[in-house]
Structures are given as structure tokens and as C-alpha cells.
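Notes from hallway chat w/ T.B., transcribed later so I don't forget. T.B. wanted the structure written out for a chain they're using in a teaching module, and asked if we could keep both sequence and C-alpha cells in one place. Agreed to drop them here.
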Amino acid sequence: MITLDDVTLTFPDGERRVTAVDHVSLTARPGVVTGITGPSGSGKSSLLAVAATLIRPDSGRVLIGGSAGSGGSHAGDGAVSGAVDAAVLSRDDATALRRERIGIVFQQSNLLPSLTAREQVLVMAHLGGGHRAAVTRARVDELLDAVGLSGHGDKRPAQLSGGQRQRVAIARALVHDPDVLLVDEPTSALDQERGAAIMDLIARLTHERGTATMLVTHDMVHRAVLDELVTIVDGRLTDGAPAGVAVRAA
């Protein structure tokens, strides 16, 4: 589980500061895909970066793991037992937490051109050290099969389609069985058919593995695969789909 509790993030802009995330409270529960939508510049990616421990917020808590009472996506009183507050960790400790408990899928697959699909996943495991260094080729092939790439393990990025490259990125993010999966606009570089297949894949893996998934998207054509949906406008959570968010019939 991941809970953002009253998180605020600002950036310097000359002599003043611009608020990118404004007192946001949000929980993604295990086995649930929580979608985050909003117009361009609304703070979606900034919110995800805070959740990923890539940026420390000005204030608020980023609670990874633990358990809380049942309820919707909006955090209640912030009471989460057994969780780690990533917002107060040192940079090294936050990096270690991210490697062990958080999987991240970016807009672009960011694969290394010289490595095969199998090697992309193995390298990520070995970089983490510890028990992850023992990840075997068989385990990686199981992951590639889970994302629909059985038989493609020896192919390099140039030999894969855009959708297949994104599937490799998803397998790479899941190699250490993270508690939390954070996904930023995974369909932005794909056509509608391939985008739908990627969204279906993320939803299926979330439900099967019990991962707490936060997924940023601007395109409501994929709304059906999101278990929960929140909207952010000018850094604040709001109700309803704002202007600038694409809503199309499937």
C-alpha cells in the first residue's frame, strides 16, 4: 500500500515558489489500480515523483507498506500501521526503499539498446543487490511470459514494437515483487489498440499480484480498467473530469 498524507510540493520560480502539489491526500491499496488524471501541467507527474521517492515533498508524509482500514482512494486520518515514511528518509535510504519496494514504469520504456529483453530485466535485479541478485533466468522468463513476451527474451529493443518495449519495462519494474507500482502515462507513445493492451496488462498484473498501483493518464478511453480514479487540477484533488482531459468512446 502507499499513502500520500497531506503532501505539498513547491518549486522555485524566480523570487517566488510555484505549488505543484497542494495538500494532497491519496491512498492506493493492494490489488487496486488507482488512476490519476488531469489536464497538462496539473501536477500529475509531480505527484507520482513524490510517490516514487524521487522528489522529497515540502511537507506531508509518503507512507509505503503497512495496513489501514478499508475505504476509498482519499486518505482518511492518515493512520497507517507498519508503514515507512519515505519523506523523512535520507537519500540513500530512500533509494534502497525504492529498489526493494517500488516499481516504476515511465512514459518511455528507456531500455538499453545493446541488451536483450531478458538482460534488461536481469540487470535491474542485479543492480539492486541483496536477494535480488539471485534472480535467475528462469524467473525472468516467467516474468516475460506474464507480460506476453514468451519467446522474445533474446530480442533487443530495435527488434521489438513500442508496445513490446513497454511490456519489457513493466517486467523490469516487477522483477523484485514491489509493494507499489507507479506508472506514468504508459500509453502516450502507443496507438489506441496497443495502449489498451498495455492498460489491460497492468490491471491484470495488479490484481493477480496484489500490487498497489498508481497510474497517471490523460486519456479516459482507458477508464474501464481503472478500479479507482482521482482528478488533480492546479495541484489539488477535485471531483469530475476537468477540461483538457480526453474522454473518448472505446
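Follow-up for T.B.: Helices lie at 44-51, 91-101, 117-128, 137-146, 162-173, 192-209. Might be a good example for the class.
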